[in-house]
Structures are given as structure tokens and as C-alpha cells.
Design goal:
- The protein contains seven helices and eleven strands.
- By secondary structure, the chain is of the alpha+beta class.
- Strand 1 and strand 2 form a beta hairpin.
- Helix 2 packs across helix 4.
- It is elongated, with a radius of gyration of 20 Å.
Amino acid sequence: MTLRINDIAPDFDAETTDGPIRFHDWIGDGWAVLFSHPKDFTPVCTTELGTVAGLRGEFEKRNCKVLGISVDGVSDHHAWSKDIEASQGHALNYPLVGDPALKVVKLYDMLPADSGHTSEGRTPMDNATARSVFLIGPDKRIKATLTYPMSTGRNFAEILRLLDSIQLTAKEQVATPADWQNGDDVIILPAVSNEAAREKYPDGWEEPLPYIRIVPQPE
């Protein structure tokens, strides 16, 4: 099953380092980031899990929960978490899903259906495609996806920037331009007429092209 933006994020039951969860119930009425890893005790993923632990407060400010998943069992996760804290300076402070039967990574189309039914004997390279990020809204729909190779650590400042943009554009009829940062100018959506735009932006807008209308970011 190929997952696309605006698809319902598949629901699942899973064991995690914080106990059992049902994904949609765990999300509740807020936002969620689900990010995956191909194997425990891998170097780049170790740095990523520690980085996200240090950023947990930033996600909480945005009413966003974080859920990690790695293609190994929870007992391995608990052992790995000690390495993460020792090397990265941050203890794991969010749940990490155990997926030794490969059910969740297959459900999210990160591994082919014929990949077998166990993580035993599989190497990180066997699971190399389990390196995705899914941003999920309160409506349980996928708002954005990112996939990285194993050799490139993910940029979680960019994921926070993406989350800021998605939350803003879900609330306001605007889009964010290239390299936008929270507080920068934004673009009025083409679907908004000039008449409707004047009501919301009585001071007008910059118009470098007939189809680009730039205004300050709404409060």
C-alpha cells in the first residue's frame, strides 16, 4: 500500500518502551511525528534518537507527540536506550515501538510485503528503506513524509520548521515560500480572491508577480 499526503495514517497496536499503545488513540487530538529506524545499535540512528529527546520540549510546544520505531524488539530498545543516553547526553523520553515481526514497517510501506515476518537475521541494509518520517495531523491524516538514506542523519530543525508551516497553513489560507522560517512573510493562497484577501489584509500585499501575493505572517 503506497501512502500519500492526505491519506489516513494506518492505525496499529504495538508494544513500545513505554508500554502498549494503539496509535490513533495515542495521538489523541493533537499532532504526531512517527520516524523509523532500520535496526537498533546503528550509529546515525543513535544520534537521531538522542537529538529528538533533546528537542521533546519543542515538539510539546507545538502540541505534537513523537513516536520512534525500530525494526527490533522492545528488549533491544531498552538496551539501546542506555547507549543513547551515554553517548548523546539525553535519555529516551518518548516511546520507541518494537516491530520484530515487521508489521508496522510493512503497513507504512517502508518494507515490501515479502520481506519475511521477523527482524531476526536481518541486517540494517536489509531494512535500509525504514528511514521515513511521517507528520500526522489531529484528523489522523498524513500531512508530510520524508525519507533519508542510512548514511545521512535527519535534520530535526527542518522537521520542526515543516511542522510549523503545516500547522500555520492548516489554520490560515496561506502558503510558506522557500526557506521560510516561523515569523517570515507568507503567500496568500491562489484560491483566495483579491476581494477576500483585502478583507483580511487591509494594508494590502506585495505582488512581484500576478500570482504571488506576499503578506506578513498572520498572528
